[in-house]
Design a protein that fits this description.
By secondary structure, this protein is mainly alpha-helical. The chain contains 10 helices and 7 strands.
Length: 279
Amino acid sequence: MLKTKVILAALGAALIVPAAMAGSTPEEDRKEAVEYFKQMFPDVPYEEYVNGQYALDDDRRSQWESLQDFPPYEFAVAEGKEMFETPFANGKTYASCFENGGIGIRQNFPYFDDKNDEVITLELAINRCREANGEEPLKYKKGDIASISAYMASTSQGKNFNIKVQDSPEALAAYQSGKEFYYSRRGQLNFSCASCHVQNPGNWIRADLLSPALGQPSNFPVHRSKWGELGTLHRRFAGCNRNVRAEPLPAQSTEYRNLEYFLTYMSNGLPVVGPSTRP
């Protein structure tokens, strides 16, 4: 732990987060981000960013590809499918709450709900579906909600993210809030998300190879060796906050939903590949 702290602190002392993603509109941000990473990794094809660190390191990629022969999340996806199709006590199913019966829609989440002025993530929509049908909400970081989300993601594999930021002050404010969170330093180590995933992708922190910001939401939910199970994107957000000694926020808090909105918009045009595996 001390070694990690020393390495991170050493990196932090040298970090000046570049002006990537500093456009005046979300689309300018996205284009600047794509160009920034293109210059940082000129040999990495754009579509490879969905593979995170495995797009940057051949040895790790080889190990990861061998793992895909028997991916450890398969049973969880099957359980998620069964839960998705099992009727609630009132006889309805999750399909009743979603466009196209919930099949092939992962690429449209999160979206900004202009009626209630809030970002709706897939996991939040799953729980609101349950509550609308008289069921108790699920916990947000792992377990059944990760399995259901993983099944829904699996039906969208290959479909490109198409997140929209409407031309409204409320939607733009939510996007901007997520962007500010991504670039704000926090915790005892005084690190931002961008410190690792914009400034230092491709560098190592102990045994962890830092992945670029582009494409990160494409993989979720993920099965991490460290967790030994599937987890949601907001579980990962909380873990990153802990890594820099910051107090994590609750999963599906407004701040984390806005962060997901910004980060997923940056991945527009990249396909859903989740669920996936990570160290």
